Amino acid sequence: MDGVASVLTFLDAVRKGVKLAKKVYDAPRELEELQVEVETFTSVLHDVSGDACELRRASRSFDTSLSMTQACLVSIQQLIEYQLVKEVPEGKKTRRTAWLREVGHVHQLLQKLSECRAGVVLALSCESAVTVRRSETTIRELQRIVHEKSADLSRTLLESRDESHQANNQLIKRLDAAFEQSWEIHRASLEATKTQFEQLETKLARLLSYGHGSTLLPAVGQERIEWSATDTSLGSYTALGAREFTHIRRNTGCSGMVSHSIERSPVGTVNEGHSLPRDSFPCAAVLRVLDACAAGHLGCSSAVDEVKTELPTRVVEVGVEGDEVRCPRLGSRVRADAPCIWASSPQRFSWLVSRSDFWTTPGRWYATIRG
Questions:
Q1: What stretches in the chain show pLDDT beneath 70?
Q2: Contact assessment for residue 7 and residue 66, using Cβ atoms and an 8 Å cutoff
Q3: How far apart, in whole angstroms, are the C-alpha atoms of residue 341 and residue 260?
Q4: d(CA 147, CA 199)
Protein backbone atom coordinates (compact mmCIF):
# COMPACT_ATOMS: atom_id res chain seq x y z
CA MET A 1 0.00 0.00 0.00
CA ASP A 2 1.15 3.48 -0.74
CA GLY A 3 2.67 5.26 2.26
CA VAL A 4 0.44 8.33 2.12
CA ALA A 5 -2.70 6.23 1.68
CA SER A 6 -1.66 4.05 4.64
CA VAL A 7 -1.04 7.08 6.81
CA LEU A 8 -4.41 8.52 5.82
CA THR A 9 -6.08 5.23 6.82
CA PHE A 10 -4.42 5.34 10.23
CA LEU A 11 -5.36 8.99 10.66
CA ASP A 12 -9.00 8.18 9.96
CA ALA A 13 -8.97 5.39 12.57
CA VAL A 14 -7.26 7.64 15.12
CA ARG A 15 -9.79 10.41 14.47
CA LYS A 16 -12.68 8.04 15.21
CA GLY A 17 -10.97 6.73 18.37
CA VAL A 18 -10.29 10.25 19.61
CA LYS A 19 -13.94 11.18 19.14
CA LEU A 20 -15.02 8.14 21.13
CA ALA A 21 -12.45 8.83 23.87
CA LYS A 22 -13.61 12.43 24.11
CA LYS A 23 -17.15 11.20 24.62
CA VAL A 24 -16.13 8.65 27.25
CA TYR A 25 -13.79 10.90 29.19
CA ASP A 26 -15.86 14.04 28.93
CA ALA A 27 -13.60 15.73 26.34
CA PRO A 28 -10.41 16.37 28.21
CA ARG A 29 -8.08 19.03 26.82
CA GLU A 30 -5.39 16.61 25.64
CA LEU A 31 -7.85 14.63 23.53
CA GLU A 32 -9.12 17.87 22.00
CA GLU A 33 -5.57 18.82 21.01
CA LEU A 34 -4.97 15.33 19.64
CA GLN A 35 -8.11 15.55 17.55
CA VAL A 36 -7.03 18.93 16.11
CA GLU A 37 -3.58 17.56 15.30
CA VAL A 38 -5.04 14.53 13.56
CA GLU A 39 -7.39 16.71 11.49
CA THR A 40 -4.52 19.02 10.48
CA PHE A 41 -2.28 16.14 9.55
CA THR A 42 -5.05 14.56 7.52
CA SER A 43 -5.59 17.83 5.60
CA VAL A 44 -1.86 18.13 4.82
CA LEU A 45 -1.63 14.58 3.52
CA HIS A 46 -4.79 14.98 1.46
CA ASP A 47 -3.21 18.04 -0.21
CA VAL A 48 -0.08 16.12 -1.23
CA SER A 49 -1.68 12.75 -1.91
CA GLY A 50 -1.73 13.39 -5.68
CA ASP A 51 2.06 13.88 -5.79
CA ALA A 52 2.94 11.47 -2.99
CA CYS A 53 4.46 8.75 -5.15
CA GLU A 54 6.60 11.26 -7.01
CA LEU A 55 7.65 12.88 -3.73
CA ARG A 56 8.61 9.54 -2.17
CA ARG A 57 10.80 8.68 -5.17
CA ALA A 58 12.36 12.14 -5.24
CA SER A 59 12.81 12.82 -1.49
CA ARG A 60 14.08 10.31 1.06
CA SER A 61 13.29 12.67 3.96
CA PHE A 62 9.64 12.76 2.99
CA ASP A 63 9.51 8.97 2.89
CA THR A 64 11.16 8.80 6.32
CA SER A 65 8.69 11.33 7.75
CA LEU A 66 5.79 9.27 6.46
CA SER A 67 7.18 6.12 8.08
CA MET A 68 7.60 7.87 11.44
CA THR A 69 4.10 9.32 11.19
CA GLN A 70 2.65 5.92 10.46
CA ALA A 71 4.38 4.43 13.53
CA CYS A 72 3.13 7.27 15.73
CA LEU A 73 -0.41 6.83 14.49
CA VAL A 74 -0.28 3.11 15.18
CA SER A 75 0.76 3.86 18.76
CA ILE A 76 -2.04 6.41 19.20
CA GLN A 77 -4.60 4.01 17.75
CA GLN A 78 -3.50 1.19 20.08
CA LEU A 79 -3.58 3.53 23.07
CA ILE A 80 -7.08 4.71 22.38
CA GLU A 81 -8.45 1.34 21.36
CA TYR A 82 -6.88 -0.84 24.04
CA GLN A 83 -6.23 1.50 26.95
CA LEU A 84 -9.01 4.08 26.85
CA VAL A 85 -12.02 2.67 24.99
CA LYS A 86 -11.92 -1.13 25.25
CA GLU A 87 -12.56 -1.33 29.01
CA VAL A 88 -14.21 1.85 30.17
CA PRO A 89 -14.26 2.01 33.97
CA GLU A 90 -17.55 2.74 35.67
CA GLY A 91 -17.94 5.87 37.59
CA LYS A 92 -16.68 9.26 36.86
CA LYS A 93 -13.96 9.13 39.43
CA THR A 94 -12.64 5.81 38.13
CA ARG A 95 -12.55 7.10 34.55
CA ARG A 96 -10.78 10.19 35.78
CA THR A 97 -8.17 8.05 37.47
CA ALA A 98 -7.67 5.94 34.32
CA TRP A 99 -7.28 9.04 32.17
CA LEU A 100 -4.70 10.49 34.49
CA ARG A 101 -2.79 7.23 34.23
CA GLU A 102 -2.65 7.45 30.39
CA VAL A 103 -2.51 11.18 29.90
CA GLY A 104 1.30 11.30 29.89
CA HIS A 105 1.43 8.67 27.14
CA VAL A 106 -1.19 10.58 25.12
CA HIS A 107 0.77 13.79 25.51
CA GLN A 108 3.95 12.11 24.25
CA LEU A 109 2.16 10.67 21.22
CA LEU A 110 0.62 14.08 20.51
CA GLN A 111 4.03 15.74 20.56
CA LYS A 112 5.49 12.98 18.41
CA LEU A 113 2.66 13.37 15.90
CA SER A 114 3.31 17.12 15.77
CA GLU A 115 6.98 16.45 15.07
CA CYS A 116 6.07 14.00 12.34
CA ARG A 117 3.77 16.56 10.80
CA ALA A 118 6.52 19.20 10.93
CA GLY A 119 8.93 16.73 9.32
CA VAL A 120 6.49 16.04 6.52
CA VAL A 121 5.94 19.76 5.96
CA LEU A 122 9.70 20.38 6.00
CA ALA A 123 10.28 17.55 3.54
CA LEU A 124 7.58 18.99 1.31
CA SER A 125 9.14 22.46 1.55
CA CYS A 126 12.60 21.15 0.73
CA GLU A 127 11.24 19.15 -2.16
CA SER A 128 9.36 22.21 -3.37
CA ALA A 129 12.55 24.27 -3.21
CA VAL A 130 14.44 21.57 -5.08
CA THR A 131 11.68 21.37 -7.63
CA VAL A 132 11.73 25.15 -8.03
CA ARG A 133 15.50 25.17 -8.50
CA ARG A 134 15.26 22.28 -10.91
CA SER A 135 12.51 24.11 -12.80
CA GLU A 136 14.57 27.30 -12.88
CA THR A 137 17.53 25.36 -14.22
CA THR A 138 15.34 23.76 -16.86
CA ILE A 139 13.88 27.13 -17.78
CA ARG A 140 17.33 28.69 -18.07
CA GLU A 141 18.46 25.80 -20.25
CA LEU A 142 15.40 26.20 -22.43
CA GLN A 143 16.04 29.94 -22.64
CA ARG A 144 19.62 29.29 -23.68
CA ILE A 145 18.50 26.83 -26.34
CA VAL A 146 15.84 29.26 -27.58
CA HIS A 147 18.39 32.09 -27.65
CA GLU A 148 20.87 29.99 -29.62
CA LYS A 149 18.19 28.83 -32.02
CA SER A 150 16.94 32.40 -32.39
CA ALA A 151 20.47 33.62 -33.08
CA ASP A 152 20.96 30.88 -35.68
CA LEU A 153 17.60 31.68 -37.23
CA SER A 154 18.34 35.42 -37.26
CA ARG A 155 21.74 34.79 -38.82
CA THR A 156 20.16 32.55 -41.45
CA LEU A 157 17.49 35.14 -42.17
CA LEU A 158 20.09 37.89 -42.48
CA GLU A 159 22.17 35.80 -44.86
CA SER A 160 19.07 34.97 -46.89
CA ARG A 161 18.06 38.63 -46.92
CA ASP A 162 21.55 39.67 -48.04
CA GLU A 163 21.48 37.12 -50.83
CA SER A 164 18.01 38.27 -51.84
CA HIS A 165 19.15 41.89 -51.71
CA GLN A 166 22.14 41.13 -53.92
CA ALA A 167 19.93 39.21 -56.34
CA ASN A 168 17.49 42.13 -56.42
CA ASN A 169 20.33 44.57 -57.06
CA GLN A 170 21.61 42.44 -59.93
CA LEU A 171 18.08 42.20 -61.33
CA ILE A 172 17.65 45.97 -61.04
CA LYS A 173 20.96 46.51 -62.82
CA ARG A 174 19.91 44.17 -65.62
CA LEU A 175 16.56 45.92 -65.85
CA ASP A 176 18.31 49.31 -65.96
CA ALA A 177 20.60 48.08 -68.73
CA ALA A 178 17.65 46.67 -70.66
CA PHE A 179 15.73 49.90 -70.15
CA GLU A 180 18.68 51.98 -71.33
CA GLN A 181 19.04 49.78 -74.39
CA SER A 182 15.31 49.99 -75.08
CA TRP A 183 15.40 53.73 -74.51
CA GLU A 184 18.29 54.12 -76.96
CA ILE A 185 16.36 52.15 -79.57
CA HIS A 186 13.22 54.15 -78.85
CA ARG A 187 15.14 57.42 -78.98
CA ALA A 188 16.69 56.45 -82.31
CA SER A 189 13.21 55.58 -83.57
CA LEU A 190 11.93 58.92 -82.29
CA GLU A 191 14.77 60.73 -84.02
CA ALA A 192 14.00 58.93 -87.28
CA THR A 193 10.29 59.69 -86.91
CA LYS A 194 11.11 63.30 -86.07
CA THR A 195 13.31 63.56 -89.16
CA GLN A 196 10.58 62.10 -91.35
CA PHE A 197 8.03 64.42 -89.78
CA GLU A 198 10.27 67.44 -90.30
CA GLN A 199 10.77 66.46 -93.93
CA LEU A 200 7.03 66.04 -94.38
CA GLU A 201 6.43 69.32 -92.55
CA THR A 202 8.92 71.05 -94.85
CA LYS A 203 7.16 69.66 -97.90
CA LEU A 204 3.79 70.68 -96.51
CA ALA A 205 5.10 74.15 -95.63
CA ARG A 206 6.33 74.54 -99.19
CA LEU A 207 2.92 73.56 -100.47
CA LEU A 208 1.10 75.87 -98.09
CA SER A 209 3.50 78.77 -98.64
CA TYR A 210 1.83 79.51 -101.98
CA GLY A 211 -1.48 80.67 -100.60
CA HIS A 212 -4.57 78.62 -99.94
CA GLY A 213 -3.09 75.41 -101.24
CA SER A 214 -5.94 74.30 -103.49
CA THR A 215 -5.18 71.21 -105.52
CA LEU A 216 -6.13 70.83 -109.15
CA LEU A 217 -6.13 67.60 -111.06
CA PRO A 218 -6.46 67.46 -114.87
CA ALA A 219 -9.02 65.23 -116.46
CA VAL A 220 -9.45 64.77 -120.21
CA GLY A 221 -12.80 64.78 -121.93
CA GLN A 222 -13.75 64.50 -125.58
CA GLU A 223 -14.96 68.08 -125.96
CA ARG A 224 -13.70 69.59 -122.73
CA ILE A 225 -10.93 69.73 -120.19
CA GLU A 226 -12.15 69.30 -116.62
CA TRP A 227 -10.37 70.20 -113.40
CA SER A 228 -11.75 69.76 -109.94
CA ALA A 229 -10.40 71.08 -106.68
CA THR A 230 -11.66 71.42 -103.15
CA ASP A 231 -10.81 74.19 -100.74
CA THR A 232 -12.84 75.06 -97.63
CA SER A 233 -12.15 78.78 -97.92
CA LEU A 234 -12.29 79.27 -101.70
CA GLY A 235 -15.01 76.85 -102.68
CA SER A 236 -14.80 74.58 -105.72
CA TYR A 237 -13.16 75.23 -109.06
CA THR A 238 -14.22 73.88 -112.43
CA ALA A 239 -12.57 74.50 -115.79
CA LEU A 240 -14.28 73.54 -119.03
CA GLY A 241 -12.27 73.85 -122.25
CA ALA A 242 -12.75 73.53 -125.99
CA ARG A 243 -10.27 73.71 -128.87
CA GLU A 244 -10.18 77.48 -129.20
CA PHE A 245 -10.82 78.65 -125.63
CA THR A 246 -11.59 77.34 -122.19
CA HIS A 247 -14.26 78.41 -119.72
CA ILE A 248 -13.06 78.36 -116.13
CA ARG A 249 -15.54 79.01 -113.41
CA ARG A 250 -15.22 79.35 -109.69
CA ASN A 251 -18.10 78.69 -107.35
CA THR A 252 -17.53 80.29 -103.94
CA GLY A 253 -20.87 79.29 -102.54
CA CYS A 254 -21.74 82.90 -101.78
CA SER A 255 -20.83 85.13 -104.71
CA GLY A 256 -22.14 82.98 -107.55
CA MET A 257 -20.34 82.23 -110.80
CA VAL A 258 -17.66 84.63 -112.09
CA SER A 259 -15.87 84.38 -115.45
CA HIS A 260 -13.46 86.55 -117.46
CA SER A 261 -12.00 86.29 -120.97
CA ILE A 262 -8.45 86.91 -122.16
CA GLU A 263 -7.25 86.28 -125.70
CA ARG A 264 -3.57 86.57 -126.49
CA SER A 265 -2.19 86.91 -130.00
CA PRO A 266 1.32 85.73 -131.01
CA VAL A 267 2.53 89.32 -130.96
CA GLY A 268 1.58 89.67 -127.34
CA THR A 269 -1.56 91.80 -127.46
CA VAL A 270 -4.38 91.12 -125.08
CA ASN A 271 -7.77 91.60 -126.69
CA GLU A 272 -9.81 91.11 -123.58
CA GLY A 273 -8.86 90.55 -119.97
CA HIS A 274 -8.98 91.57 -116.38
CA SER A 275 -6.13 92.41 -114.01
CA LEU A 276 -6.22 90.49 -110.71
CA PRO A 277 -4.06 91.01 -107.64
CA ARG A 278 -1.65 88.19 -106.91
CA ASP A 279 -3.01 87.45 -103.42
CA SER A 280 -6.42 86.61 -104.88
CA PHE A 281 -5.11 83.48 -106.64
CA PRO A 282 -5.10 80.04 -105.03
CA CYS A 283 -1.34 79.68 -104.70
CA ALA A 284 0.35 76.28 -105.02
CA ALA A 285 2.82 75.11 -107.59
CA VAL A 286 0.88 72.85 -109.91
CA LEU A 287 3.74 70.48 -110.51
CA ARG A 288 4.39 70.09 -106.78
CA VAL A 289 0.70 69.70 -106.07
CA LEU A 290 0.27 67.01 -108.68
CA ASP A 291 3.31 65.14 -107.33
CA ALA A 292 1.94 65.39 -103.80
CA CYS A 293 -1.46 64.16 -104.94
CA ALA A 294 0.14 61.21 -106.69
CA ALA A 295 2.04 60.37 -103.49
CA GLY A 296 -1.20 60.51 -101.48
CA HIS A 297 -0.19 63.39 -99.13
CA LEU A 298 -3.14 65.61 -100.06
CA GLY A 299 -6.77 64.64 -100.53
CA CYS A 300 -7.74 65.23 -104.16
CA SER A 301 -10.44 64.03 -106.45
CA SER A 302 -10.25 63.43 -110.17
CA ALA A 303 -12.42 61.90 -112.80
CA VAL A 304 -10.70 60.83 -115.98
CA ASP A 305 -12.63 59.77 -119.04
CA GLU A 306 -10.07 58.36 -121.40
CA VAL A 307 -11.33 59.57 -124.79
CA LYS A 308 -9.51 60.99 -127.75
CA THR A 309 -8.75 64.69 -128.04
CA GLU A 310 -6.86 66.54 -130.72
CA LEU A 311 -4.98 68.93 -128.48
CA PRO A 312 -3.09 67.88 -125.31
CA THR A 313 -3.34 69.64 -121.96
CA ARG A 314 -0.12 70.77 -120.28
CA VAL A 315 1.23 73.18 -117.70
CA VAL A 316 3.40 76.00 -118.99
CA GLU A 317 5.12 78.99 -117.47
CA VAL A 318 3.15 82.05 -118.45
CA GLY A 319 4.96 84.91 -116.81
CA VAL A 320 7.85 86.20 -114.78
CA GLU A 321 7.76 89.02 -112.25
CA GLY A 322 8.67 92.26 -113.94
CA ASP A 323 7.06 91.40 -117.30
CA GLU A 324 4.67 93.98 -118.64
CA VAL A 325 1.52 93.30 -120.57
CA ARG A 326 -1.05 95.56 -122.09
CA CYS A 327 -4.59 95.16 -120.84
CA PRO A 328 -7.01 96.93 -123.21
CA ARG A 329 -9.89 96.63 -120.82
CA LEU A 330 -8.05 98.71 -118.26
CA GLY A 331 -6.37 100.88 -120.89
CA SER A 332 -2.94 100.67 -119.26
CA ARG A 333 0.17 98.54 -119.04
CA VAL A 334 0.52 96.46 -115.90
CA ARG A 335 3.25 94.32 -114.43
CA ALA A 336 3.20 90.56 -113.96
CA ASP A 337 1.28 90.71 -110.70
CA ALA A 338 -1.68 91.25 -113.06
CA PRO A 339 -0.73 87.91 -114.55
CA CYS A 340 0.37 87.98 -118.13
CA ILE A 341 -0.05 85.01 -120.42
CA TRP A 342 3.09 83.82 -122.09
CA ALA A 343 3.78 80.66 -124.11
CA SER A 344 7.00 79.12 -125.31
CA SER A 345 5.69 78.82 -128.90
CA PRO A 346 4.14 81.34 -131.29
CA GLN A 347 0.96 79.28 -131.47
CA ARG A 348 -2.19 81.19 -130.69
CA PHE A 349 -3.98 80.33 -127.43
CA SER A 350 -7.31 81.52 -126.11
CA TRP A 351 -8.76 81.33 -122.59
CA LEU A 352 -11.78 82.46 -120.75
CA VAL A 353 -10.04 83.17 -117.46
CA SER A 354 -11.22 83.32 -113.84
CA ARG A 355 -9.16 83.70 -110.72
CA SER A 356 -8.43 79.98 -110.57
CA ASP A 357 -6.35 79.47 -113.71
CA PHE A 358 -2.94 80.65 -112.41
CA TRP A 359 -0.53 79.27 -109.83
CA THR A 360 2.58 80.85 -108.51
CA THR A 361 5.98 80.08 -107.13
CA PRO A 362 8.16 82.90 -105.88
CA GLY A 363 8.76 85.07 -108.95
CA ARG A 364 6.96 82.86 -111.49
CA TRP A 365 3.45 82.23 -112.78
CA TYR A 366 1.99 79.01 -114.19
CA ALA A 367 -1.19 78.12 -116.07
CA THR A 368 -2.69 75.02 -117.61
CA ILE A 369 -3.34 75.31 -121.37
CA ARG A 370 -4.82 73.23 -124.15
CA GLY A 371 -2.97 73.07 -127.45
A1: 1-3, 25-27, 48-59, 81-82, 85-93, 95, 209-371
A2: yes
A3: 14
A4: 75
Read off the DSSP letter of residue 270.
B
What lies within 8 Å, CB to CB, of 231 at 6+ separation is 212, 213, 214, 237, 282
Does residue 262 contact residue 357 with C-beta atoms inside 8 Å? no
Q: How many CA atoms lie within 13 A of 293 on its CB side?
A: 20
Nearest residue to 300 via CA among 245, 356, 180, 219:
219
Tally Cβ neighbours within 10 Å of residue 204: 14
Question: If we measure between CA atoms, which residue out of 121, 127, 128, 123 comes closest to residue 41?
Answer: 121
Tell me, what's the pLDDT at 92? 65
SS3 360: strand
Side-by-side strand order, sheet with 217-220:
217-220, 225-231, 235-241, 246-251, 257-258
The structural domains of the chain, with segments of one domain joined by +, span 3-147, 217-370
Question: Is there a contact between 83 and 148 (Cβ–Cβ < 8 Å)?
Answer: no
